[in-house]
Design a protein that fits this description.
The chain is α/β, with parallel strands linked by helices and about 450 residues long. It has three domains: about 40 residues, no CATH class; about 220 residues, 3-Layer(aba) Sandwich (Aspartate Aminotransferase, domain 2), CATH 3.40.640.10; about 120 residues, Aspartate Aminotransferase, domain 1 (Alpha-Beta Complex). The protein has 14 helices and twelve strands. Strand 7, helix 9 and strand 8 form a beta-alpha-beta unit. The longest helix is centred in the C-terminal third of the chain and has 43 residues.
């Protein structure tokens, strides 16, 4: 086998000057050094990798899988056979996927390289979660599922002991009102009942007091959900107090941290919750936090046993693509790149609020007083109901994607309460957004507003 760190030894007797060989070895060794460090340390690299280095690692690992073995006699029903070589590109070569039918993180006999890739990726997931504010987690796993389906998987894995007659009947999950269909559907999907604790208005903000959550507890409850990141006017839950409540009442506590990894203050809330009480799992999207294509989530926990249960609850072998996408992001960004993105996000959030305040003054509107380190909400009390509806369409036609225009008279779902009085628009300065995006979106919002009120 060729040792690339000693490759010049194969050319010593050829007609190539030694100084040239040494120079070439130096360049090659520098290229390979980050890969060697990754395999040794199994942590997110400090500095970003080049695309060539990432591609080299992925090709090396994927070529270890049995579907690349030209001498193999493949007679199984699942042999990573593909119709087009394009599929090798879309899967980064990991056509066998990851895991086994009964254990997501189990080594796959037909995918030695895929197994190594998944193991490395999970190490990096745990590492980046610790780096971004959760040093008190013990393990993390990447799952090829969206946030909602990840909640279904987690609830199913941590459901009451079916052999215990005292707990088998418990089917209710306490949910501080979260007006998001995917999360509510995820609870219903596995046959559990969501018991919604209504949101209350405090100034402009919507919150769910811990006292209200406590009042809804009954003998049928086995779990409680809490959230960090959500759209205004909903603010984050009191994670610390919910964690204490969960511990006192032996409730499974799952935190939905959908796009919260990018916000240090939200991560601090989770850290304090783990320290103060019970947290069983924290779920976050890979695309919203780590700039990957849609389709993956990181589930972290202060309990290794919980991550093991979640892994064992996954039904079937899993697609490797969302895991590969996470790995690519971590290697392409590195710690320095990701930290820079977080700092840019914080700066762009300030720019968004400043620019929307300037527009608000022109329109006799105001910025709603709601704590959210990612999003900003602006009131729309001075335009008619039909104009509110038209505003969203006008923004779409002006090629502004992502804003949410709400008319509580027409649709309360989304406000996380039953009587929110103020129509509003929400814009986000999430990780990866550019200052140009924000300036352009605010400028086009003013243009759209003026179009519909004329």
């Amino acid at each position: 086998m060729v040792d690339f760190n000693k490759i010049i030894e194969f050319f010593e007797n050829l007609n190539i000057p030694e100084n040239i060989l040494i120079r070439g070895q130096l360049v090659l060794s520098e290229f390979l050094k980050p890969i060697k460090t990754l395999l040794e340390q199994r942590s997110v690299p400090k500095e970003p990798w080049t695309d060539a280095q990432i591609d080299f690692l992925l090709q090396t690992l994927s070529n270890m899988d049995t579907d690349k073995d030209n001498n193999a006699a493949r007679v199984g029903e699942r042999e990573a056979r593909i119709a087009s070589k394009l599929q090798l590109k879309t899967s980064a070569g990991f056509c066998h996927g990851v895991g086994r039918s009964g254990f997501l993180t189990a080594a796959q006999p037909k995918a030695p390289g895929g197994s190594i890739m998944y193991e490395l990726s999970n190490y990096l997931a745990r590492n980046i979660m610790k780096y971004t504010g959760l040093p008190n987690i013990k393990d993390a796993i990447i799952v090829p599922l969206c946030t909602g389906m990840s909640l279904s998987l987690t609830l199913g894995a941590l459901k009451p002991d079916q052999s215990n007659i005292n707990s088998i009947s418990k089917r209710t999950v306490l949910v501080p009102q979260i007006d998001h269909k995917s999360l509510l559907k995820s609870i219903d999907l596995i046959g559990f009942k969501a018991k919604i604790v209504p949101g209350q208005i405090f100034g402009d903000a919507v919150r769910i007091p811990i006292e209200d959550i406590k009042k809804e507890l009954d003998d049928d409850c086995f779990a409680v959900i809490s959230i960090t990141s959500f759209f205004p006017p909903r603010e984050n839950d009191d994670i610390k107090e919910i964690s204490k409540f969960a511990q006192q009442n032996n409730l499974v506590h799952i935190i939905i941290n959908a796009y919260g990894v990018q916000a240090p203050k939200w991560m601090q809330l989770i850290r304090s919750g783990i320290d103060a009480g019970r947290v069983d799992a924290i779920i976050q999207s890979t695309d919203k936090n780590f700039l990957t294509p849609v389709g993956g989530a990181v589930i972290a926990s202060p309990s290794k046993e919980n991550i093991k249960k979640i892994s064992q609850a996954y039904a079937g072998r899993a697609s490797a693509t969302p895991i590969v996408n996470f790995l690519i992001s971590m290697l392409a960004l590195g710690i320095t790149g990701y930290q820079q993105l977080i700092e840019e996000q914080q700066q762009n959030r300030k720019i968004l609020e400043t620019k929307l305040k300037e527009i608000a003054e022109k329109l006799n509107e105001r910025i709603l007083d709601i704590y959210n380190p990612v999003a900003v909400a602006l009131s729309l009390k001075n335009i008619k109901d039909e104009q509110l509806y038209a505003l969203g369409g006008a923004l779409y036609n002006l090629r502004v994607t992502g804003p949410r225009v709400y008319n509580p008279k027409e649709k309360m779902f989304g406000t996380c309460c039953t009587n929110y009085p103020t129509p509003y628009i929400v814009m986000n300065a999430a990780i990866g957004v550019t200052e140009k995006d924000i300036l352009s979106a605010v400028e086009r919002f003013e243009k759209a507003y003026n179009q519909i009120v004329q």
